[in-house]
Write a structure and sequence with these properties.
heterodimer; A: alpha/beta; Rossmann fold; Ubiquitin-like (UB roll); de novo design (two linked rop proteins); 4-stranded parallel sheet; 4-stranded mixed sheet; 17 helices; globular; B: alpha/beta; 5-stranded mixed sheet; 12 helices; elongated
């Protein structure tokens, strides 16, 4: 059952307004009402509220944010930490950047509500190294909150509610967007995901109980508090309520971010982006950032929420929609994708370290016209050796797009092997 | 205690352990329960990266790594399912795509986990045609270790070892993805007192010791259980033997003594079995036959006893409990007082290395020998084991009978010199710093005539005319007498001490 979507863009409604980036402008638009409301509630009530709102994490995995908060140990005397994952390293994703630049106080308010809910005393905002401007804006916003009593001791004169926020810039690695790779990096170590157990809620940053949430996930929280669960559940789908910022890139006329309810049909999202460039036909669409399996044109009517995409062998991921038109060589896509994952694999787990490199070499061999039928079999098989068997989901992220390309565009691969060269024009650009 | 089922067999395991740890606790890992693994090591932090130990656990949708999955009561583990086998084949294939497969010239061949597991769990052929990752060949990591980077499978055992055990942290994995390479940190050398352990824990031929590299193929070796004699810790070792020669010592696991490690000094002490040996029996500084030397020593003892001269026994902390007990018996039979001994001392650490640089000082103490750097002036004849006492300390004694394994200045002063077997050439036991009695076996035969100290002493006693000193020497009989007559050894003798030793009461 899908609720009737309201026309709404609550996150980005005021992003065009420069004043909204500042505390006074944000407050003028109703900012921090959610926090004030939260501080009149018991922490446990807030966790339940966010759970019942059905807010799903917007960082890629789509896990219930309220449930994640509930994993934090309540009988643990150690300080608890929040980490805001602003690494946004998934290719095709650029929504968190916009939120940080245009609505930084949404994130911070969401953090403070969550901090009250789970008893966190400190938040680290881990921002990818390339995001210099977003880091500056977020730091400015944090400074404003300190000046105005929203951060520090006894926040909003609430005794016992203390919170600090530290803005931390990463050094540029995809894997530091994986939550435990991020924690390692935050601690000053090489960015390599941690084996689980222990999970971050037991042993997170600096060994303390930690919850990691994505930038956008935090941004939805103030609206849920201020406007209520029923309002939130009235947007999007039953299993995926609320909006998201779909980032559309690739062969479209007007690439950009479009805030739409979860469950908006893919075709409609592409139309928001002005449709395919030059009126060409769609060849394939990656629905949720580069690590998600590609969809063929026959699936364009899929509703863009995870419960529908997973039925089609792919996922919503970060909502980064990458559109490829009919001129696209899917083997070259495989080369680019596999090169990226080969380059970014942290190198810990055998399958990922060795598999990503091997897959990339096979793809490049096929693209160069030196591939054989045996190579196609390898591309069928090697990703299956990598999938689901490693410390983190990176190997899945490296395997899935190749599996998707082989599933839907095997013909492109076979044509390369049969013709001993790439049948697409060399001028082709991704 | 939780009960888990592995491939249909139930095991009672310790709470709070992971599957691999629990199986290792039971002593069944790879010898009863086969869960292949590379990065996991019982004495190092869990890494979880090689993915070789994946197993299927009922109720869990994905395969799990046995090394990091906590045991739970009623857990059902399958180590042989089709999914597990496919995962194992996958890991093996992927580990090998960048491996040089140079087994014919690799020193690890024969004791290589990559070879072993490729046979047991891998695929019959290769599906790659790409060139291997370029890497350094036979590079020098420091004074003890040679590194073949191209063979490295990046299990990071050596990295964790250097961080956790000597806490020197010389090694790291640099770069990422399939460019990952094990390297020394810039400006450092792998140079710490425990460096050679990295060669033992390296599952492949990437890290080998300069000492053993290319000396012999390992399938020509057999490993004899023994104990290191270089300090009072008594680290358990295997001595690898071939052609009546010791080629190397390897640490042998004993969680109460040395875990799975030994220090480099101890490891390299296998050379001492053949170096600087006292090999010729002498009477009045002239080489003679062993029988003549024994007879002369017996005569000297008989004369001293009959003349009522003072007789002193000097024990050696390098001699076995059994040898020292025969010395006790001889001194008692001769009416002499308790003997003395002295222990060489040096630097210690809080890992394995102890200050007492001999294996059996506590054995000497338990047998009543008095620690002293001087011999006293009451004696006219001294029966001296070893040369830990300074020669000057014995200056006032007219006649010395020296029984020793190594040549020393003392041999020049002795009336009779008798070459003895080292610990590697006889059976016996040492009592370590924590009063743990640990046994050793004969590993090699000396290339010259030599007897164990105990047997020499018994023959001297017989030659001196002591009643009942004529029976055939049997170290096991000596050990039984020791366990019956010295309270601390009550019930402990060579026949009932297992490979992990036993503590004195």
């Amino acid at each position: 059952m899908i609720t009737q979507p309201q026309v709404t863009n609550y996150l980005s409604e005021h992003y065009g307004d420069e004043a909204y980036r500042e505390l006074s402008g944000y407050e003028a638009c109703g900012g921090f009402e959610g926090l004030r409301k939260a501080l009149r509630m018991e922490p446990g009530e807030i966790v339940e509220l966010v759970k019942s709102a059905g807010l799903r994490g917007r960082g890629g995995a789509g896990f219930s944010a309220g449930l994640k908060w509930s994993f934090m140990p309540s009988d643990d005397a150690r300080p608890k930490l929040f980490v805001c994952n602003a690494d946004e390293s998934e290719p095709g994703s650029f929504k968190d950047r916009l939120i940080m630049e245009r609505g930084p106080h949404q994130i911070l308010e969401g953090i403070l509500i969550g901090a009250w809910a789970i008893g966190a005393s400190k938040t680290y905002i881990y921002i990818r190294g390339e995001y210099a401007e977003p880091a500056r804006r977020v730091q400015q916003a944090v400074d404003e909150l300190y000046e105005r009593g929203y951060l520090g001791r006894s926040i909003l004169r609430k005794k016992g509610f203390d919170h600090d926020i530290v803005v931390h810039s990463g050094a540029g690695a995809y894997i530091c967007g994986e939550e435990t790779g991020l924690l390692e990096s935050l601690e000053g170590k090489k960015g390599q995901p941690r084996k689980k157990p222990p999970f971050p809620a037991q042993y997170g940053a600096f060994g303390l109980p930690t919850t990691v949430n994505n930038v956008e996930t935090f941004s939805h929280v103030p609206f849920i508090l201020a406007r209520g669960v029923d309002w939130f559940r009235g947007i999007g789908t039953e299993k995926s309520p609320g909006t998201t910022l779909y980032g559309v890139s690739g062969h479209v006329e007007r690439p950009g971010l479009f805030e739409l309810p979860l469950g908006t049909p893919l075709r409609e999202i592409i139309e928001h982006a002005g449709g395919v460039r030059g009126g060409r036909a769609v060849k394939g669409v990656i629905p949720g950032g580069m690590s998600m399996p590609i969809l063929p044109p026959s699936e364009l009517d899929v509703k863009m929420a995870d419960e529908f995409l997973s039925e089609r062998g792919t996922h919503l991921g970060t909502g980064g929609v990458m559109v490829m038109d009919e001129t696209t060589c899917m083997v070259r896509v495989a080369c680019v994708v596999s090169y990226f994952f080969r380059d970014e694999s942290c190198g810990q787990c055998t399958q990922c370290r060795e598999g990503t490199g091997w897959v990339n070499k096979i793809c490049e061999r096929i693209e160069a016209g030196r591939g054989t039928a045996a190579d196609l079999e390898l591309l069928d098989d090697v990703p299956s050796l990598m999938e689901g068997q490693t410390i983190c989901a990176f190997a899945d992220a490296a395997a899935w797009p190749i599996q998707g390309l082989m599933r839907h565009f095997r013909g492109d691969f076979e044509a390369h092997v049969a013709g001993k060269k790439c049948p697409f024009p060399e001028s082709f650009e991704l | 205690m939780p009960i888990i089922s592995i491939d249909g067999t139930e095991y009672e395991v310790a709470e709070g352990r992971t599957v691999l740890q629990a199986i290792d606790d039971l002593g069944l890992l790879m010898s009863g329960v086969e869960i292949p693994h590379y990065c996991w090591h019982p004495k190092l932090p869990i890494d979880g990266s090689c993915r070789m130990c994946q197993v299927e656990i009922e109720g869990m949708p994905k395969l799990q790594i046995a090394c990091n999955t906590p045991v739970k009561d009623e857990m059902v583990v399958n180590t042989t399912s089709e999914r597990v086998q496919k995962a194992q084949r996958g890991v093996m294939e992927l580990l090998l795509i960048n491996h040089p497969l140079d087994c014919p010239i690799c020193d690890q061949a024969g004791e290589c986990k990559l070879q072993d597991f490729a046979f047991d769990y891998g695929m019959p052929g290769a599906r790659t045609e790409e060139p291997r990752r370029p890497a350094k060949k036979a590079s020098d990591l420091g004074p003890t270790i040679v590194f073949d980077q191209e063979r490295c499978i990046l299990c990071r055992r050596c990295v964790r070892f250097c961080r956790e055990i000597p806490k020197t942290g010389e090694l790291g994995v640099f770069d990422r993805g399939d460019r990952s390479l094990l390297e020394l940190f810039p400006g450092s050398k792998l140079d710490n007192p425990y460096s050679m352990n990295v060669a033992d824990i390296c599952p492949v031929g990437a890290l080998t010791t300069k000492d053993f590299r290319f000396k012999i193929r390992v399938w020509f070796l057999d490993d004899v259980e023994s104990v290191c004699d270089q300090c009072s810790n008594g680290c358990n070792i295997y001595a690898s033997r071939s052609n009546n020669r010791i080629y190397r010592y390897l640490p042998r696991r004993n969680d109460a003594v040395n875990d799975t490690w030994i220090c480099d000094h101890g490891r390299l002490s296998h050379k001492r079995i053949t170096e600087n040996r006292l090999s010729e029996p002498k009477v009045a500084r002239k080489t003679t036959t062993y029988t003549t030397a024994l007879q002369s020593a017996g005569e000297l003892v008989r004369e001293a006893r009959e003349a009522g001269k003072g007789i002193l026994g000097v024990a050696s902390p390098f001699a076995s409990n059994e040898d020292l007990f025969v010395l006790c018996e001889l001194l008692e039979a001769l009416g002499a007082g308790p003997g003395v001994f002295s222990v060489p001392r040096g630097a210690a650490d809080d890992i394995l290395i102890k200050a007492e640089k001999a294996p059996n000082a506590n054995g000497a103490r338990a047998l009543g020998f008095v620690e002293s750097d001087v011999a006293g002036d009451a004696a006219e004849l001294a029966i001296v084991l070893g040369h830990t006492l300074e020669p000057a300390a014995l200056d006032g004694i007219e006649t010395l009978i020296l029984i020793d394994t190594e040549d020393s200045a003392l041999a020049e002063k002795a009336a009779v010199v008798l070459p003895a077997r080292s610990f590697a050439q006889k059976e016996g036991s040492f009592t370590n710093h924590a009063n743990r009695v640990q046994v050793f076996q004969p590993i090699v035969e000396p290339s010259f005539e030599a007897l164990a100290e105990g047997e020499i002493l018994q023959r001297i006693g017989a030659a001196a005319g002591l009643a009942d000193w004529n029976e055939k020497y049997d170290v096991r009989e000596v050990s039984k007498r020791l366990s019956e007559s010295v309270a601390a050894f009550g019930g402990i003798h060579l026949g009932n001490i297992d490979d992990q030793g036993r503590e004195l009461s």
